[in-house]
Amino acid sequence: MLVERGVVDLFSGAGGFAEGFRRAGFRILLGVDNDPAAARSFKANFPEAVVLAMDVREVSGELIEELVGRPEIVIGSPPCEPFTGANPRRRRRPVERLYEDPAGQLVLHFARIVGELKPRVFVMENVAGILDVKDELRRVFEEAGYPRIFFNKLLAEDYSTPSHRLRVFVSNMKIAPIKSPRRISVQEALAGLPPPGSGSALNHDPPSISPRKLRRIARLRWGQALILYEGAEGRRLPNLIRLDPKRHAPTVLGSSRFIHPFEDRFLTVREQARLMGFPDHHVFLGGKDQQYNQVGEAVPVPLAEAIARFIALKLRGA
Predict the structure, then answer these.
(1) What stretches of the chain show up as alpha helix (H) in DSSP?
(2) 143-152: long-range contacts (C-beta < 8 A, 24 or more apart)?
């Protein structure tokens, strides 16, 4: 039986995508993630949901339906590493990224589960590089029972997220939320937090830093990066950027760390979560690197909420 306004989140992480749907009035039924720390975080933030700390390859639509019924919505964020230009080991031929890279194959398992559950709406998030396999995805989702799919390119900063993020949302409906009237700056996003390490905010302990690195950080101006790393096709990409307080932040990634605009230190997990629009009560469990990864690999909450509200209107026939 279809669970109206019920949502299943595949590759759920700590729940950024799900949080946006919850804010829009949907019921979060179930989350799936093979990372135990991420699964624990999801359960802590969605205690009403069933959480499967499992590899999606081992999950079936039948199992999900037995546990929570058939959801109206299926969302998910399969790993982006096979498709992103930030990955120096990305396979050269796009079709190999989808069919031969084990992480890329997880997109096919998302489509499989969607085909087994037949939700009214599905939304799959990934990097813009997923467009390199657009024709294959059309065929895969048509075989799953969805002859028309849309590749919705959205900028997170257009929807009150204080950081840049261009992502593609593959769905069986066109998604075009109304944009926010203005963008949120780093300074606005970080305002009102207590000092790091004071114990009065979750996930707000300052990461350690060596004296040598501290001296190098002290010389950085707004927008400058401490290091460059190699991406796909030999591209050089920045990391450890000192944030410009008057602009929105660059893309928050699992591997990214930012430097505070006014203080010579790295942002805390809570501060990076603010850049992704997470509420301060949203907890991240596991080791410090795992917590940063959960933040950086999430769908920004304000963007997820904008998508969810748009879908809700369409389901109501508006």
Answers:
(1) 16-23, 36-45, 61-68, 94-99, 106-117, 134-143, 186-190, 211-218, 269-275, 288-296, 301-315
(2) 143/111, 143/115, 144/111, 144/112, 144/114, 144/115, 145/115, 145/118, 146/114, 146/115, 146/122, 146/172, 148/172, 150/174, 150/175, 152/176
Q: What's the farthest any 2 CA atoms get from each other in the chain?
A: 61
In the block, which residue shows the tokens 């796009």?
A: 94
Token representation of residue 311: 């879908």
The catalytic site residues sit at 80
What's the order of all strands across the beta sheet hosting 121-127?
A: 50-52, 27-32, 2-10, 70-76, 121-127, 166-171, 150-155
Residue 277: closest CA among 23, 13, 51, 50: 23
Helix, coil or strand: residue 127: strand
Give the C-alpha separation, 129 to 217, whole Å.
Answer: 32
264, amino acid identity: D
pLDDT tens digit at each of 318 positions of the chain? 799 999 999 999 999 999 999 999 999 999 999 999 999 999 999 999 999 999 999 999 999 999 999 999 999 999 988 888 777 788 889 899 999 999 999 999 999 999 999 999 999 999 999 999 999 999 999 999 999 999 999 999 999 999 999 999 999 999 999 999 999 999 999 999 999 998 889 999 989 889 998 999 999 999 988 877 766 566 677 788 999 999 999 999 988 899 999 999 999 999 999 999 999 999 999 999 999 999 999 999 999 999 999 999 999 885
Nearest alpha carbon to residue 282 among 309, 310, 256, 304: 304
Specify whether the backbone of 62 is left (phi greater than 0), alpha (psi in -120 to 50) or beta: alpha
Here the tokens at position 310 are 């748009």
The structure's pTM equals: 0.94
Domains, in order of start, for the chain: 2-180+299-315 (3.40.50.150), 186-296 (3.90.120.10)
- What is the three-class DSSP state of 26? coil
Element (H, E) at 75: strand 70-76
